[in-house]
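Tokens in:
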């Protein structure tokens, strides 16, 4: 298990370190400022903090010394003339995801934004360029739409470690798109998904994957927690299968994590449907499958089972080895040392948690 946890929260960037059998506070940066994503690049240990200042806009900072010092870099910015819709200029409203470009491309970083732009840096984040091939995709202006936010957003970037020019992205709301040439061309990969909120639920573009992840042990196994269920692909997103739990809690939610060593093992954080977005029956629950979604086990030991309103945002559930951690909308941080069989509280008094990541 990796021994650092990075949190992006409504009131700052927070780091914990696992020492002597317990998580201990190690860093607080940007106190009082909303951090949409706290991200560690595993290639070089650089920490990244994407800030959402609201009135003052989006900012991006990096630290090469584990948060002791931070350097601001230019946040991804849309070129002059870019439009969300005809007559509506595009500007970066939110940095929703970050991913490194792989070992073969040590200076490459990807960033996903609201209003639906994918950006790439080839110089370690000193500058970012809009991937115009995706921005100019013929489906974007007509069929992409807002999900939890007013405008579309790219919240998931999945780089294939076997071929680092092969990337899947998740867009709310549009679906899954794939490139095999580092963003020069794109394929839509939504076959088998449902968009029950649209007149044609099997539409090619317009789906709402809440999060998209790949199994570290087999990147052809992709999982998504979708607005309309839980879906899994075993062939690189060419076909999706509904693996949600009929009549059970493992159906609607935002977050999903897959085990390092088993592409059939995954965790989700169930919530009530989109009408309320609260804990089901006032009880906090994580569900785990060990067989690719054919069955789900409810994991509640150590979690509050009454008077609970918590849900887990899409980037706030993560696993490493036997460790699983998640943070909630009311600032609770939980950790399990045994793949979710037992949970322990790390902190009950944090700000709203946007993201959680295990790091070295």
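Residues out:
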């Amino acid at each position: 298990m990796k021994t650092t946890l990075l949190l992006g929260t409504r009131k700052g960037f927070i780091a914990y370190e696992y020492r002597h059998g317990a998580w201990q506070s190690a860093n607080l940066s940007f106190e009082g400022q909303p951090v949409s994503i706290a991200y560690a690049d595993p290639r070089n240990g650089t920490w990244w903090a994407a800030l959402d200042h609201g009135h003052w806009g989006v900012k991006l900072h990096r630290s090469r010394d584990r948060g002791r010092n931070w350097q601001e870099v230019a946040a991804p910015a849309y070129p002059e003339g870019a439009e969300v819709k005809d007559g509506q200029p595009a500007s970066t409203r939110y940095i929703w995801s970050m991913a490194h470009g792989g070992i073969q491309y040590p200076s490459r970083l990807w960033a996903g934004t609201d209003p639906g732009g994918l950006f790439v840096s080839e110089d370690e984040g000193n500058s970012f360029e809009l991937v115009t091939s995706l921005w100019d995709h013929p489906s974007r202006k007509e069929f992409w739409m807002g999900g939890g936010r007013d405008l579309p957003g790219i919240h998931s970037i999945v780089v294939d470690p076997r071929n680092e020019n092969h990337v899947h992205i998740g867009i709310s709301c549009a679906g899954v798109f794939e490139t095999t040439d580092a963003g020069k061309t794109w394929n839509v990969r939504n076959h088998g998904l449902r968009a029950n909120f649209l007149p044609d639920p099997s539409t090619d573009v317009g789906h709402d994957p809440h999060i998209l992840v790949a199994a570290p042990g087999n990147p052809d196994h992709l999982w998504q927690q979708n607005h309309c269920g839980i879906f899994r692909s075993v062939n690189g997103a060419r076909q999706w299968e509904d693996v949600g739990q009929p009549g059970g809690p493992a159906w609607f939610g935002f977050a999903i994590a897959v085990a390092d060593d088993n592409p059939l093992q995954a965790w989700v954080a169930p919530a009530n449907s989109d009408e309320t977005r609260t804990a089901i029956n006032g009880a906090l629950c994580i569900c785990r499958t060990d067989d690719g979604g054919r069955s789900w086990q409810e994991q509640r030991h150590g979690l509050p089972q009454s008077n609970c309103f918590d849900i887990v945002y899409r980037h706030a559930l993560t696993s490493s080895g036997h460790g699983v951690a998640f943070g909630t909308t009311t600032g609770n941080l939980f950790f399990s040392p045994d793949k979710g069989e037992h949970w322990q509280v790390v902190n009950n008094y944090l700000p709203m948690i946007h993201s959680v990541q295990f790091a070295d």
